[in-house]
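Continuing from the previous page...

OK, I double-checked the sequence for Glutamate-1-semialdehyde 2,1-aminomutase against my notes and this is the correct one:
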Amino acid sequence: MNHDESRALYDRALSVLAGGVNSSVRATQPYPFFVERGDGAHVIDADGNRYVDYVMGYGPLLYGHDAPEPVQSAVQKHAAAGPMYGAPTEIEVEHAEFVERHVPSVEMLRFVNSGTEATVSAVRLARGVTGRDKIVVMQGGYHGAQESTLVEGGPGGAKPSTPGIPSSFADHTIPVPFNDEETVREVFEEHGEDIAAVLTEPILANTGIVHPVDGYLEALRDVTEDHGALLIFDEVITGFRVGGLQCAQGKFGVTPDLTTFGKIIGGGFPVGAVGGKAELVEQFTPGGDVFQSGTFSGHPVTMAAGHEYLKYAAENDVYGHVNRLGEKLRAGITDILEDQAPEYTVVGTDSMFKTVFTRHGAAERADACADGCAQVESCPNYDACPKTGADVSNAETDRWERVFWQEMKDHGVFLTANQFESQFVSYAHTDEDIEETLEAYKAAL
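Thanks. Re-ran it with the corrected sequence; updated C-alpha cells here:
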C-alpha cells in the first residue's frame, strides 16, 4: 500500500496539532493513515487505500458509515432548521422517553456532550446525593479524561496516572481489581461510610474486553446497597451494543442506580447522558442542588440522529445481524488461534471482539467459549482468560501494536491500534467481510 499522502498530512499536522493528532489513540506508528471518507463497513484513506473497518468510531457506528435513511433525513431536517437555540426542543423529550422505555435503570435522563462529561456528572451526582467523597473504580477501567478516575495504584493508595492532576483527587478514589469480590468487600468494611459509589463498566471494554465472572456484578449490587452507596454502570461502550436496547445491564440482569452513555445514543454525534432513578437524576440543577449544565446539551441534531438511530434498531433485526457476525468472527479467530497461536485468547460478546495476546493460554476452549471467553470455570483456558485489567496489561502488548496491527492494516483490515481498545462489527458488515478478515488473521498471525 502507498501512504505518501497520509505521511505528508501527518508532517503538516505535527506543526499545528499536539503530537499531530487530536486524540492519543490515533497516534499509530510510524504515522497514522488519514481517512478521507467512510463507505458502509469500510474506510478509504487519503491515498485511496480501502480497509474493512472494525474501529467504527470506537463503537458508536452501529450501522457503519452509511446511516439508515431515516437517520440521514432527521439530521438534514434539524440541521436545516437551525444550528442550536439555547432553548428546549421536542426531540430531546422524545429521545429521553425512548431510552427510558428500553433501559432497565433509566427513569430519568440528563443529556450531556460526551461520555467523559457523563461520568464526571455521575460522580458529582453520587457525591452530592450521598454526602460522601470516595469513589471505588476498577483497575484498568476507563471513564474518560476526568480527574477523579485517572488514577493508578490499589486499595492501599492511589496516585494520579498523569501529570496535571493534584494528588488530592486520587485521595478520594479507591482502585480495586475487576472480578475481585473479596477486595471490594474489604474496602467497604474499611471505608463504607465514606464511599459514595462504585463506578465500573459492566464489561471492561477499554481493556481488551474483560468479562465479569459469575456473580461479580451481583456482588457489587449487594455491597453498595448494604452500605448506602450507589452503583454506577459506565455503558459508554457497552450501551446499545451489548444486550441490544436493554444494554449490558439487561443482558446481565443487574440494574445499577445510575448509567452513563456515550455517542451511540446520538447516532455517532457528540453526546453523552446520565440516566437512572428519578429520585437521583432529578437532584441535578435546576430540580436539585447538584450543579450540571451545558450549552450544547440536548442538541437537536444529535437528539434527532440518536432517536432515529435507536428507533431503527427497535424496528429492524439489527442486533440479530451484528451479533451473528460477531459470533462468526470470534469463532473463526478462535479456530485460527488453536492452530497458529493457542496461547492467545479471543474475548468479546454480541458485536464486540478482540484477540488478547495472552502468554500462557490453553490450546482448547469449552463449547461455551467457542466464540470467545465467557469466564466458564470448566473451560481449559479459564485461568488464562483475562480477569483483570492487569491481565491484559501483562499480555504481549508491543507485539499487537508494533507487528500485528501493522500486518492487518497491510491486509486491508482496520483494527484498534493497541491491545486495549475494543473492536466492533456493524450492520453494514457482511459475511464476505468476515471471511476476508479471517484470511487476514491467518496471514498476520
